[in-house]
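Example 3.2
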Amino acid sequence: MNQLRLEEKSERSLQRRVFLGFVTVAVVATLVVTAVVTLIMQRSLISDAHSQLGRECWVLSSYLNESSDDVQSLKMLDFDEERATLVAPDGTVLFDNEANPAEMPNHKDRPEIASAMATGRGSAERQSPTVGYVSIYESISLDDGSVLRLSEDRAGVLAQLGSYAGWVALLIVLLAALSWLVSLFVSRKLVQPILDIDPSKPDRVSPYKELEPLVDHLREQQTQLERQMDMLRDADMMRQEFTANVTHELKTPIASISGASELIREGLVRPEDVGDFANRIYKESQHLSNLVSDILTLSKLDESERSKDMVLLGSSQPCDLRVICRDVMERYQHKARQMDVHVVLEGYSVMIDGYPRLLDELVGNLVSNAIRYNKKGGLVRISCGRIGMDVNGNYVEGAPNKAAADEASEQWPLGSPFVRVSDTGVGIPADSQDKVFERFYRVHKSRSRASGGTGLGLAIVKHSATAHDATVNLSSELGKGTTIQVTFPSSRMA
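Structure, written as tokens:
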């Protein structure tokens, strides 16, 4: 049933409805005008008939007042199509040129007779026995008290229309045909601008004021569609580039593992060198494992952002930023000692609602990069807390994080939770600072691969921050170090 209704609606034509509306109005207007004009003509003709009969009554009354025998005088006259009646003062009919007076009833109660007896003149209209005609009466009182009445039948509306039926029908047909052609032309002229609306043109103008909301909506939809198409093209290019980069990155450790294991299998490695080859296989497998892990993490983040479904990231729960930072620091202490880098943790506990694994990945990648790109004897400082506030929530003048508060005040108000990792390493060139969060982008390519970097760490940081509605700010100076701060909105506080 619903399908049939939809089909019926889809078959409706605006042009057809406008056309039929015009034709209907034109035909109805023609019929109404014809009827009104006929009524006006009838009233005019009846009015003329009253005037004519009234004048004739006056002339005849003058003649009869001078006559000694009214009945005989009337018999001598030719009234043509008019009917003449003489009524005595008591209402008895004395003369009628179309009927036997003796057979006619008393006329004293007839309106035109009663009026003439009372005022000297009288008139009336009554439907004639002949269908479609009206009888018109004019009467006048004579000197002897009798009343002379003249009457005639005039055609009514139906009779007039019937007498001109052919012409009226022809006129209606001509008007209907003209209305048909004019309506067809007007409906096409009205509908064509609507049909000419091109949804693909963002600069289109509404042909009618009433259609401006529709055209504006189409324009917005087209803009959104173009934006989505651009996003899809960008995403497709990014996907292709990511696939190519992943393929390239995976080939390097796989080739190294395959080559080293093949040499050992063929016995081409001296016994004393087997340990070095095994160590190389181990390092490359670790690098491969880290790369696969990072790729899987990014895939989940991408899918979550695309579908707006955070279930893929696990369950959101209260997380202590300081506990996460402490766990990351302890996990990377061994690596830091190997590279002669000192790691310190500052700040206090701040609870936010987040995804523990993602927050651990975020801080872990920041600390790992800070250690990897540091100098011997360098320092990595991990800080967490609330911008410009102490552990009790009071603003601290001159606190270590006041500079960060001033820097972020335009976007984040005081009290926003943050995690900041600073190092005293090699720094990032100004022209590379906007690119370091891209996938597989490396400022120091040889150093990154040698230290086991996958090139996906900061990309994971950026997407993890997005999943928590946070922003990432980077400041760096060559030879002096890098600071990256992730600032969470106050609404994330648990």
